[in-house]
Specification:
single chain; 343 residues; alpha+beta; Rieske Iron-sulfur Protein; Naphthalene 1,2-dioxygenase Alpha Subunit, Chain A, domain 1; 2 domains; 8-stranded antiparallel sheet; 6-stranded antiparallel sheet; binds FE2/S2 (inorganic) cluster; binds fe (ii) ion
C-alpha cells in the first residue's frame, strides 16, 4: 500500500539527461528523460500496442519512438505518430507523471498528474544558505519494504547493535525517549545532558568539553526520514533553550522511494550548520553514512525475508513505539486517500 498524492524522489537530477532512463516506483514502470527545454518528462514505460517498454525505443526531438513499430509519444504521453497506420488510433496514449526538480533530485507525483501540488514538497530549511554545508549524498537499492526503513529511522536503539564499525563506540543509551505525533509525521527524540560527543561527531563540534546532545529521529509522510543530531555546549542544551551560537547541527535527510512491496530505493544527504566549503568533512561524513547504511541494508534485507517467510508469530518491543505510530499514521492517510478516490 502506498500514498499516491505526494512526491517521491525518482532520481538525482544529474542522472537524468536527454536519453531514456527506465525506473520503477510504487510498482509502476516509468521512463524518464530530459527535454530540450530542460524539463524532465516522465511517462509510463509501456507502449499501448504490445507493451514494449518505451525505454527500449528512441528519443527523437523530445518524443519517444517505440522500438517495435514506431508509435511515437510526446512528453504529455499523447501519441503523435503511428507510422504503420493511416490514422493515429484512438486510445493510443500513455500515462504521464508530473515531475519537478528541487534539492538535487527529480521528484514524481504518483497521483493523477493534474492534481500535482508543488506546495506539498518537503521543505528543507537553509538548503540555499551558504553558511550550511552539504554532503554529496548517495543512494542504494535495498531489497526490503520501505516501511522497514522508516521503522529503522525511528529507532535509535539499533545503533548499539547494528553500527558497530560505522559509529564505533556507540553504547546503548538509557536516556528516556519521547514521541511526538503530528499530522505529517512522528518524531522520537531525547536530550542527553553533559555527555561526550561520539567519535563520528567529535571532530565537527566547534567547542571543547562535554555537550548536551539531542537525538531527533523524525519520519514524515510518505517516507522521509529527518534525523537531527544537535550538540550544544554542556549547560546550553535542553528543550527550553534557544540554540547557543556554538551549537553544532547535522541533519540527515533520508528519502525512501518504494520500488514495489519488496524493494526500496534509498537516497540521502547530510546538511550541517558549519564548514560549508570543507570538502574533506563532507567526504568523510558521506563515507561514514555509506558504511552505516550498508550495515542497515544487511539487517533490513534479512528482516524483510525473515518477516515475509515467518512460520511463527513475531512480537513488538517498547522501542517500536515510534515506528508503529508512524505506520498507523501513514495507513490512515492511505486509507483516506483510497476512500476519496473510490467516492
Ligand atoms: S509495441 Fe510499440 S508500436 Fe508496437
Ligand atoms: Fe541505522
Amino acid at each position: 500500500m502506498y500514498l499516491r498524492n505526494c512526491w517521491y524522489v525518482a532520481a538525482w537530477s544529474k542522472d537524468v539527461g536527454a536519453r531514456l532512463t527506465a525506473t520503477r516506483l510504487l510498482g509502476e514502470n516509468i521512463v524518464l528523460y530530459r527535454r530540450a527545454n530542460g524539463e524532465v518528462a516522465a511517462l509510463e514505460d509501456a507502449c499501448p500496442h504490445r507493451k514494449l517498454p518505451l525505454s527500449k525505443g528512441q528519443l527523437k526531438d523530445d518524443r519517444v519512438v517505440c522500438g517495435y513499430h514506431g508509435l511515437t509519444f510526446d512528453a504529455g504521453g499523447v501519441c503523435v505518430a503511428a507510422p504503420t497506420q493511416e490514422r493515429i488510433p484512438t486510445g493510443a496514449q500513455v500515462r504521464r507523471y508530473a515531475a519537478l526538480e528541487r534539492y538535487g533530485f527529480v521528484w514524481l507525483w504518483m497521483g493523477a498528474a493534474e492534481s500535482a501540488d508543488a506546495s506539498r514538497l518537503v521543505d528543507i530549511p537553509n538548503y540555499d544558505d551558504p553558511r550550511w554545508g552539504r554532503t554529496a549524498g548517495g543512494d542504494m537499492a535495498i531489497a526490503c519494504n520501505y516501511l522497514y526503513i522508516t521503522d529503522n529511522l525511528l529507532d535509535p536503539s539499533h545503533v548499539a547493535w547494528v553500527h558497530l564499525t560505522s559509529f564505533a563506540g556507540a553504547k546503548a543509551d538509557s536516556a528516556p525517549l519521547s514521541i511526538d505525533v503530528g499530522a505529517e509525521g512522528v518524531t522520537v527524540w531525547r536530550w542527553m545532558m553533559d555527555v561526550a560527543p561520539p567519535d563520528y561527531y567529535a571532530p565537527l563540534v566547534k567547542f571543547r568539553g562535554a555537550c548536551d546532545r539531542k537525538q531527533h529521529y523524525e519520519c514524515r509522510i510518505p517516507s522521509i526520514g529527518v534525523n537531527k543530531s544537535i550538540f550544544a555546549p554542556a549547560g546550553h542544551g535542553g528543550p527550553d533553550k534557544s540554540l547557543h551560537e556554538k551549537t553544532f547541527v547535522n541533519i540527515s535527510y533520508n528519502f525512501m522511494t518504494p520500488v514495489d512491496e519488496d524493494n526500496t530505493l534509498y537516497y540521502w544527504f547530510q546538511h550541517r550548520n558549519t564548514d560549508p566549503e570543507d570538502a574533506a568533512i563532507s567526504e568523510s561524513m558521506n563515507k561514514g553514512a555509506y558504511m552505516a547504511f550498508n550495515e542497515d541494508k544487511e539487517v533490513l534485507e534479512a528482516v524483510h525475508l525473515g518477516m515475509k517467510h515467518r512460520t511463527t508469530p513475531y512480537l513488538d518491543l517498547g522501542l517500536d513505539a515510534g515506528a508503529l505510530r508512524f505506520r498507523r499514521l501513514l495507513k490512515a492517510r492511505i486509507e483516506a486517500e483510497q476512500a476519496a478516490a473510490a467516492a
